[in-house]
Amino acid sequence: MNVRAPRTALVAGLALLFGGGLVVYGGAGVLKVRAMQAEIQQLERDLQALRAQTQKLTATIDRLRNDPAYIEKLAREDLGYVREGETVLKFPATKAK
To answer: What is the per-residue pLDDT for 4?
Structure first.
């Protein structure tokens, strides 16, 4: 009686079972990894945009703290402030044709 034949069949059966499991469950894993990689790339792009926005806001804060001319510019443009002694001329709005 050849002992190798049943052992070989058992190893081949286990390998086939293991390979089938990889095909069934491994495919879903690969898809999940790809989806996660795409999400990571999107999050990295979002992070880069947020860092740029943070840098702009930090620069604006610095100007508000240290640049009186910038504060005056904002007060004139946004709030309509004028200096004492200045004359303001207001013109009626014209309708676009």
So the answer is: 63
- Taken in order 59, 62, 67, 73, the sign of the CA dihedral is positive
Residue 41 near residue 34 (C-beta atoms within 8 A): no
Q: Note the pTM of the prediction, 2 decimals.
A: 0.54
Task: Determine the Cα–Cα distance for residues 71 and 62; give it in Å rounded to an integer.
Answer: 11
Put residue 85 in one of left, alpha, beta given phi > 0 → left and psi -120 to 50 → alpha.
left
The DSSP annotation for 41-73 comes to HHHHHHHHHHHHHHHHHHHHHHHHHH-HHHHHH
Position with higher pLDDT, 3 vs 10: 10
